[in-house]
Specification:
The chain is mainly alpha-helical. It has twelve helices and two strands; from the N terminus they run αααββααααααααα.
Length: 375
């Protein structure tokens, strides 16, 4: 059977365009990046090539291999997150990466996002197989069990600290749980609980900062300060990024002509580099391409495929859409700065390889025969 004809090119072509846009934009960002980092555009191209190899590997082993070994991966990467806190080398006051001499850095939390999607997908599928009409008690213990699964890596990642990734963990969790079919009342209870906790934390932060620091420490205080600084557009990073975007006009300043310096131009603020180079027209093209890719994933999830594939796609869509909105929003000064990167575009070996694992999973799902729309 010729499998090449069965590959969905509406998934593959956007990835190829993302790769071109990513490498071009990172090349432009090199103007303001330290030469000690090396040629990040060339490294990004290398990661894309390695990622392509991962996709081919997944096409051979199929998604079932990942489903069967999901809990093994979960245990392994939780151990890595723990070892990172003990032995990790601090970079910008965070222990998020293992430094591998001669290769670069490795960020376990990027892969943990994918592993959580796999583990939760498998757990939801098993729950449906065992309980056709679950009682409230059965649903409660299922929610408790899945919450603990998400909580363990969330605590380890929060301690690095990497609040942005923790938020993504829970975005994935809530959407996957939502489409699992459990009673909606649980979301009301959980939502009220989280609103209460967040309300108490913010209450201490705004009205008694000394008590807040005493209870939660200075690290969380400074993280919240960074998040809330976006509201008045303060800070060199945001001000300069918005100035670069605002001055770009319809067609932009041109390739490799970013007019002003701002930190993290190759990662968190990659969209500002792209928008300043290619202007309003280029930005509309990139956003339209992102929306087209997301639509294809939603389109695929609405077809009559295995339930576990639908759960997995829901987690993938939740992760990608949240990151896309958050990253572009914070570049435009519309959302708080959280350090969340733009999928497939921002520089990063660990993040890009994890996304290419997702691509392999999506292609495998799209190649399944006898798919029909759910009516």
């Amino acid at each position: 059977m010729n499998t090449k004809k069965k590959i969905d090119f509406t998934i593959l072509i956007p990835i190829l365009l993302f790769a071109i846009i990513s490498i071009i934009t990172i090349t432009s960002a090199l103007t303001y990046l330290s030469p000690s980092l090396g040629n990040l555009a060339l490294k990004q191209a290398m990661w894309y090539i390695i990622g392509g190899g991962l996709v081919l590997l997944l096409l051979h082993f199929k998604n079932e291999y990942l489903y069967q070994n999901a809990f093994l991966f979960y245990i392994l990467f939780n151990i890595l997150l723990l070892l990172l806190l003990i032995f990790g080398q601090p970079i910008n006051n965070s222990k998020c990466w293992f430094i591998i001499p001669g290769i670069g850095s490795f960020q376990p939390s990027e892969f943990m996002k994918i592993i959580l999607i796999l583990v939760l997908g498998v757990m939801i599928q098993k729950f449906h197989d065992k309980t056709q009409n679950p009682t409230c008690k059965e649903e409660f213990f299922f929610i408790l069990k899945t919450f603990c699964i998400v909580l363990i890596p969330s605590i380890l990642t929060f301690l690095e600290p990497d609040t942005g990734v923790v938020i993504i963990y829970f975005i994935i969790y809530f959407l996957m749980l939502f489409i699992s079919g459990i009673r909606l009342r649980w979301f009301l209870f959980v939502g009220l609980f989280f609103l209460l906790v967040i309300g108490l934390v913010f209450g201490f932060y705004f009205f008694n900062q000394d008590l807040f620091i005493h209870l939660f420490g200075t690290k969380l205080f400074y993280r919240l300060e960074r998040i809330f600084s976006w509201s008045d557009g303060s800070g060199l990073q945001l001000e300069n990024a918005m100035a670069a975007i605002g001055s770009s006009g319809f067609l932009g300043h041109g390739f490799n002509h970013t007019p002003i310096y701002f930190p993290e131009s190759g990662t968190d603020f990659i969209f500002a580099v792209y928008a300043s180079n290619f202007g309003f027209l280029g930005s509309v093209f990139l956003i339209a391409l992102i929306c087209f890719f997301d639509y294809q994933l939603i389109h695929l999830a609405m077809k009559k495929i295995k339930p576990i594939h639908q759960f997995i796609l829901a987690g993938i869509i939740a992760m990608l859409v949240f990151q896309q909105i958050q990253n572009i929003g914070m570049n435009l000064g519309l959302l708080p700065i959280t350090g969340i990167t733009l999928p497939f575009i921002s520089y990063g070996g660990s993040s890009l390889l994890s996304y290419m694992v997702i691509v392999g999973m999506i292609i495998n799902i799209s190649k399944e025969p006898n798919r029909h729309y759910i009516t």
